[in-house]
Amino acid sequence: MLKQDIRTYGVCIGVITGSITLGVYAYKRLFSRLPPGPFTIPFFGSPARKNELVYETNKRLAEKYGVIFSYWSGTQLKIFLNDYNLIKEAFVNRGDEFSQAPPENMSYFLKFHDRFITVDYNEDVRILKRGILQAFRGLFGSGKTLLEDRIRFELFHKFYNIKDDTPIDVGEFFKALSVNVTCSMYFGKRFEYDSKEMDELFKLSQNYFKWFFVELTLNFTNMPLPFFLKKIIYRKAIQKSKDAIEGMRQWVRSMMEDHDDTEDDLVSAYKKLVPEAKIEEIIDTIMFLLSDPLDVVPGVLSGLFHLVAMHPEKQQKMFEEISNSQSSFLDQSKLPYVRAFIIETLRYANFVSNSAAHRVIKETTLQGYRIPKDADIYANFYAVHMNEETMKDCFIFRPERHLEDNHNIITFGIGRKSCLGEQWVRSQMYLTLVITLQKYRLEPTPGFNKLKYQSDVFHLPEKVELLFIDRNKSD
């Protein structure tokens, strides 16, 4: 009896010892040689976030752990690259390795944006992306004034109702303008302001942005739970996202049905450059591109014009530079201070604080650390832009720095999965600023307080009210 008890006891000890050994081995296999980061709780991840925005968390962790860190969100490992050279090494020099997309990305089971966010950078994606970029260049590339003409036309209509003593909600002001500029450039069609068609598009866009980008892309992704549990918890949001996406898809489809292929617009140019593209591919491509002008551009212009109003001496310097040159996209080289102001705005405001998630084709190493195949890898733009070691006086808004030296700025992504809308956003920023400053001086409203921001997806101001003072009346 005693021998049997001893034997049983020995077996138990062996099982326990073996389990511990296997557990330690598995732990070391899982965590060994990973980039440094905060403590991890099994299944729940790292308690990395405090009462702060995502970009604030990532900046704090970058300051503590250096150019590369990692933490766990639920069972998902996230790795952040916080140095320009390291980001370039991964996403540009080793783009073949780092261009995978996370399969559990929300759009994976929403069946949307597959060609640009969730699918690997394969030949089909290359063709589609190349076609879009060529279409953009054909519309407002070298020697083209089509975009400038459309913006001037819309601004003329919007300027007509401006009064010197009435605060203007910059985001709302430019949202309607951006819709018409975009629709005329994409489809060859514009809407009357305050029309039923424009209101309908605003509502569709608002739902699409809220449910897909904020509730799912941000909140779903950062919830520290296993993926299958998050899908259960977020089933309502997932359905709302599907409804919002389908609403936008139907709207784009209706615009495509009424489209005239003889128009000088993006759809016509894209069809000519990629004749093999299917109608559904074009619809999804246009939907992807609409997120910038409908939701991002108005917020970016709000942030830009806010900085213009808050720095009157810099505004005057831009006005003097503009006055000595004709407003045209071709004049950017002749307006170096205006261009420097825009670059500094993109750096200082950090409208996009980090890249979309990347993954590697297979397990690899970076900076001496192990990069597992299933880890999400991000470029931390905010850490690059707000680093005192590489960007002197980084918390001071100083456009002159971009006239003195070439600084490494990443505003719309880098490498193969960089933002397709970069040229579009930069062009609208430049042309809208130049044309507006020709006619108006911008001033903050009395009693202005600190800006509040919409969400972590895009670091865009909630509301900016400014006074547009007619230069002809004030001089």
UniProtKB/TrEMBL annotation:
GO biological process, one term: organic acid metabolic process
One of the Pfam families matching this protein, by short name: p450
Swiss-Prot/TrEMBL cofactor(s): heme
Recorded GO CC terms: cytoplasm
GO-annotated molecular function: heme binding; iron ion binding; oxidoreductase activity, acting on paired donors, with incorporation or reduction of molecular oxygen, reduced flavin or flavoprotein as one donor, and incorporation of one atom of oxygen; steroid hydroxylase activity
Top-rank taxon, per record: Eukaryota
Record's keyword terms, sorted: Heme, Iron, Membrane, Metal-binding, Monooxygenase, Oxidoreductase, Transmembrane, Transmembrane helix
InterPro entries, A to Z: Cyt_P450 (IPR001128), Cyt_P450_CS (IPR017972), Cyt_P450_E_grp-I (IPR002401), Cyt_P450_sf (IPR036396), Cytochrome_P450_fam2 (IPR050182)
Binding site for heme: C419
Family from the record: Belongs to the cytochrome P450 family.
Name of the molecule in the record: DgyrCDS2393
